[in-house]
Amino acid sequence: MTDIAPLQKFVRRATELVERHGADEAALFADLEPLLKDLIRTDGWLPDAYRQPHPQFYQQYLLHADPLERWSVVSFVWGPGQKTPIHDHRVWGLVGVIEGAETGTSFVRRDDGRLVATGEERLERGDVVKVSPTVGDIHQVANAHADRVSISIHVYGGNIGAVARAVYDPETGAEKPFVSGYSNTAVPNLWDRSAEVRAGLQRA
Amino acid sequence: MTDIAPLQKFVRRATELVERHGADEAALFADLEPLLKDLIRTDGWLPDAYRQPHPQFYQQYLLHADPLERWSVVSFVWGPGQKTPIHDHRVWGLVGVIEGAETGTSFVRRDDGRLVATGEERLERGDVVKVSPTVGDIHQVANAHADRVSISIHVYGGNIGAVARAVYDPETGAEKPFVSGYSNTAVPNLWDRSAEVRAGLQRA
Ligand SMILES: [Fe+3]
Ligand SMILES: [Fe+3]
Ligand SMILES: [Mg+2]
Predict the structure, then answer these.
(1) Distance separating the N- and C-terminal Cα atoms of chain B
(2) pTM to 2 decimals?
(3) Membrane-spanning residues where (chains A, B) (predicted)?
(4) Chain B contact probe: residue of A2, A73, A197 with most B CBs at under 10 A
């Protein structure tokens, strides 16, 4: 059985950081990045239901959304060769690879509206990258593998599935409204700590 | 398909109340009770997965836990004739009947440790009762029906499945440690508001 405790602890700590730092993005990035790196060091905590690829579409499984929609954490599952459109976020985000590898391509938009690719990097398991309107918000993410699933854990400064944002036409740079939603109707129950509490009572 | 929106709105508002009132139990009860009454006025928002009885045991389906474990909301499903042991909570709680009917019996503990029943009331659909160490914390809840399922929605001032509390022997009043846990490993995804956000974009 999956031990969900690492995700529960991540959710508690990330919530405390969001309460403490508010809109101070640099402080949040500084404190959240090590937490995410630690979370993706192992993957035994991620239940099977949130690592299932779809034959056609990359999947976005919500793992937790803050009840005030200040932040969220999502499992992205890429089938062989799958990729996102070029898109933005409008909030801060951290992307950490937990299985396989991904290719991230960054874009800036010129004054005439055209997109220019400014970098491409291969993200291996354990790597974390940042996005936001401040540090660069337009990118495209692809499974680096043509023959296997890759999975990344994404943390965002909002309920990302409900953020009004944009996808971009790679040829013209034209912007189209985009709301991503989620692939799942149920999220993991992080809060059954009864075994842990019972064990504590017996030690006491 | 279930429209989860009433539960999502309840969770947001209850979170705001818990942040505002903190440990002021009277203020919380005053503001939360009407929210719960409003929530249980209809039951179309409660997905089937969280209304399933078990042939032997009453079920406790977590619907949402606050990430800082300050509060939680749980669907209790009583099969025909099922009842809780006599138990306490150690935190504030509100119980609202959403389907069927329940019998609630309140107890006080005498100085010699014996339990005395101080009241029994039948709770119909739409009724809400309070529990807490302040207003009376020891009770027993039973399905009022011998031939059908009853369901109630419980709101507590903590992650109730992880609270170290007690059940009581009805004869002697002897107290036994109790941690209730949850019947479910997945909770509803309240946060896919993408259809609502897309509709708003089209109106704009
Ligand atoms: Fe992205
Ligand atoms: Fe109770
Ligand atoms: Mg009904």
Answers:
(1) 27
(2) 0.96
(3) none
(4) A197
The helix/strand/coil state of A58 is coil
Q: Running DSSP on this structure, what letter comes out for residue B204?
A: -
Q: Which two tokens stand for residue B124?
A: 């119909």
Q: Ligand 2 centre from B87 Cα, in Å?
A: 6
Check: CB of residue B93 under 8 Å from CB of residue B36.
Answer: no
| Residues of A engaging B, defined by a Cβ cutoff of 8 Å | 11-12, 15-16, 47, 49, 62, 64-69, 72, 159, 161-164, 177, 179-182, 184-198, 200-201
**Over chain B (204 residues), what is each successive 10-residue block's mean pLDDT?**
90 98 97 98 98 98 98 98 97 98 97 94 98 97 98 98 97 96 98 95 80
Task: Choose the closest CB to B184 out of A67, A189, A193.
Answer: A189
CB contact under 8 A, A179 and B187: no
Mean pLDDT, to the nearest integer, of A46-65?
98
A130-144, pLDDT tens digit by residue?
999 999 999 999 999
Closest A-chain CA to B191:
A65
Q: Using alpha carbons only, what angle is made at residue A18 by residues A13 and A23, rounded to the nearest 5 degrees?
A: 160
Interface A–B counts its CB contacts (< 8 A) at 117
Q: Which CATH number fits domain A5-185: 2.60.120.10, 1.10.287.620, 2.120.10.30, 3.40.50.300?
A: 2.60.120.10
Boundaries of every domain in chain A: 5-185
Q: Taking 60 as the threshold, does the pLDDT of residue A1 lie above it?
A: no
Burial B1-35 (b: 16+ CB within 10 A, else e): eeebebbbebbebbbebbeebeeebeebbebbbeb
Chain B residues closer than 8 Å to A189 by CB: 62, 182, 184-187
Cα–Cα dist A70/A85, whole Å: 25
**A119 strand-pairing partners:** A106
Residue A2 has pLDDT above 90, yes or no: no
From the CA of B125, the nearest ligand is: 3
* DSSP for A165-194, written as a single string: EEEE-TTT--EEEE----S-SEEE-----H
What integer pLDDT is reported at residue B1 of this predicted model? 52
